Amino acid sequence: MMSEPLTHKRPIALSLIIYAFIILWMILAAMPFFWTVWGSFKVEADFFSRDSWWNAIFGTNTIRQTGEAFTGAGYYGAWVLRDFWRAAGNTIIVTLCVTIISLTLGTLGGYALARSGRNYAFWILIAALVFRAMPHITLVSGYLLPFFQLNIWGVLPTSIIVLVAINQPFTLWMLHSFFLSIPKDLDESAMVDGCTRFQAFRMVIIPVMWPGVVTTGLFSFLLGYNDFAVTAMLLSAENQTMVPKISSFLGSIQETGNVMYAVAAVVSATVPLFILVLFFQRQIVSGLTAGAVKG
Amino acid sequence: MPNKTFFAFILPSLIAMVLFIALPIVSVVVQSLYVAHERVMVEVENCQPFGGCTKELRVDTAATTQLQREQPLGRFNGLGTYFNRAHLATNELGAILSSERGFGEKVALIFNLPFYKALIFTLVYCFVVTPLAMVLGFAIALAVNALPKVTKGPIIFFSLLPMIITPLVGSLILYWMLSPNGILGATIQHIFNDPTLSLRASPPLTWIALLVYGVWTNAPFSFVVFYAGLQTVPGDTLESAMIDGASRWERIRYVIIPHLAPLATFVALVQLMDNFRVFEPIVGFSADANATSLSWLIYNDLSGDAQQFGSAGATSVLTIIGVVILLLPVLIRTWREFKHKAV
Questions:
Q1: CATH superfamily entry for domain A77-294
Q2: Cβ–Cβ < 8 Å for A141, A162
Q3: Residue B211 contacts A, CB cutoff 8 Å
Q4: Which of A130, A264, B11, B115 has the most C-beta neighbours closer than 10 Å?
Q5: What is the mean pLDDT of residues A161-174?
Q6: Among A245, A233, A247, which Cα is nearest to A154's?
């Protein structure tokens, strides 16, 4: 890598360009979030101000309308008046179940694929790659009619199991390459000592697999949390999770002039992701690159 | 590992994939061959005391509902749905191409056909966003790599946000800023001194906004992967290139880029797959008047009161064919490697 003396030799002009470029990218990447979080505590006349965006910073109209520079009206409207809390609860149920079930199925399957080495294991991985590329909405159009017929449309368990299945190809690939990095000798020596394959898995592999499982779990969580196509089409209005709920806000709220409800809901949905990156930045980065290096 | 143990381990996962990925694909193909029933009509004789009798056709609601219940798929239509105006539109396309119009006019007419409008946008989005995001990501990776170590953590943290954000939420955040009353939209109007300039009114502006959103949300992935790749560039090679008098640019061009090429293939593949299903930004930007995508077409068929399963099925099958074409080079290469290994 660039060694120390190299860095010293860099001309000042180049350093300036690099710093300017990074600062510009930081503004592009982070500004929209800070702007929206700040604006969510203002009234609509400020956040969507035709006159000047200084209104949004100082809250001119917010002070005029509410007497203070910050207002929680948007959050009150979204969470209390429009039942966003219910959507948040549904999201918690869906993402937790999706993550746990995906990981359970995925670790078993990924372990088998990593230790098999037969032809069909290869073909299963290739099929998984093709499945991974399917746009989710094409699958959804296949679900609707059968789900109507079976009368299982609109409830949370259906969405959970569908998201688990859609998530399987990715989980299998990720955990397969993770298990390949655990030496074969480990579980095979346990089997020489008289363990069955399953006992070896339980007693030798499970204790050492957590780093890979946590990383994969983060991406399963993101898939469940960020999904719009499946949850928007497969959940009835009262069972909606946060993302489809926000989109349903758009239709009904923009007319009645309460865009700030949607802004507050959007900020509320962003906060958990913010916290997730804050605590798991290292795992997310290693997950992204692990797929690249081995895939 | 013996077959029995292998399948014992993988069975739950396989069942889930077969039931909810493989079977739906079959179900989509079947659906695409059917269209909704025509309403059952009955002839009713309407006799009035003085006016005599008139016969008229009426919709028999009960019979229609019953037919619907007995055959929920609808009636068989073969490949009809594929070639109608809302999909491949072969007749319309032929008429447009054989007509005596100018090139621009022909393109505009083709653009009026819903399927082609969506296909063109989807492809443009795929093949504009993917390379631009990769170039931007590579530039960020090079720049971050040249910075002191302490700054790297926070920079990576903020860089991850546009990628990790829920697509619908991310596009809404940008859309609000770009709307005529938002900070960026108002500023743009101010700069160009044109109060009518707005996303909703201008198709080119909508396209640009969607593409900008795409680059914004895709660049971090390239950045992270390329940044990790940069850490593995062999120091010896770089040093010997320097001793040979290679300039900074030449070192990037002849050492770093070849080293990262395999990673770039991977990134391009993953991002093409993801960008091909572009959908949420169109909902978030309320852009469907000016730009639609294949996924959005399916969504549009399925939502609303009259769900058009046949039409959604046909678009889905065409989309799946598109995905397979996109993946074909990878599949062929993997197949060759596999054959090679087997021999």
A1: MetI-like (1.10.3720.10)
A2: no
A3: no
A4: A264
A5: 94
A6: A233
Q: Is A13 exposed, middle or buried (0-12, 13-18, 19+ CB in 10 A)?
A: exposed
Burial class (CB in 10 A: 0-12, 13-18, 19+), A126: middle
pLDDT reading at B80 higher than 90? no
Burial state string for B227-255 with b = 16 or more CB within 10 A and e = fewer than 16:
bbbbeebeeeebeebbeeebeeeebeeeb
Tokens of B183: 């900070």
Sequence spans of domains, chain A:
1-29, 77-294
Give me the torsion for CA of A183, A186, A188, A194, rounded to 10°. Answer: -170
DSSP per residue, A120-189: HHHHHHHHHHHHHHS-HHHHHHHHHHHHHHHT-TBSHHHHHHHHHHHHHHHHHHHHHHHHHTS-HHHHHH
Q: What is the pLDDT of residue A84?
A: 93
Residue B325 contacts A where some CB pair is shorter than 8 Å: no
- Which residues are registered as beta bridge partners of B54? B46
What chain B residue is nearest to A33 in terms of C-alpha separation? B173
The candidate with the shortest Cα–Cα distance to A28, out of B112, B136, B8, is B136
- Sign of the dihedral defined by the CA atoms of residues B183, B185, B186, B191, in that order: positive
With cut-offs at 50, 70 and 90, classify the pLDDT of residue A88.
very high
d(CA B221, CA B164): 9
Contact A228 B279 (CB under 8 A): yes
Q: What number is the ipTM of this complex? A: 0.91
Q: Give the nearest partner residue to B143 out of A18, A108, A262, using CB atoms.
A: A18
CB atoms within 10 A of CB A63: 16
Token pair, residue A289, equals 């690159």
> What are the CA-CA distances from residue B137 to residues A25, B143, B200, B217 (Å)?
10, 10, 30, 11
E strand or H helix at B161: helix B149-164
| Whole-angstrom distance, CA of residue A241 vs CA of residue A85 | 10
pLDDT for residue A2: 47
- Cβ burial, residue A195 (10 Å; 0-12/13-18/19+): middle
Under an 8 A CB cutoff, do B248 and A32 touch? no
C-alpha–C-alpha distance, residues B174 and A33, integer Å: 9
Distances (CA, A) of A293 to A208, B38, B174, B263: 21, 55, 32, 7
Quick check: A3 pLDDT over 80? no
Read off the pLDDT of each residue in A111-116 and give the average, rounded to a whole number. Answer: 91
Residue pLDDT, tens place only, A244-273: 999 988 876 556 667 889 999 999 999 999
Domains (range + CATH), chain B: 83-112 (no CATH), 114-293 (1.10.3720.10)
CB–CB of A145 and B72 under 8 A?
yes
Q: Which residues contact A182 (CB under 8 A, 6 or more apart)?
A: A114, A205, A208, A209
Q: Which residue of A has its CA nearest to B331?
A: A126
**Chain B: residue nearest A276 by CA?**
B164
Residue A245, min C-alpha distance to chain B (Å): 11
B247 contacts in A (CB within 8 Å)? none
The predicted pLDDT at position A8 comes to 47
Tokens of B263: 């990673």
Instruction: Tell me whether residues A1 and B319 touch, CB distance under 8 A.
Output: no
pLDDT tens by residue, B225-274: 999 999 988 888 888 988 888 888 899 999 999 999 988 988 998 899 99
Q: Give the 3-state secondary structure of residue B136.
A: helix
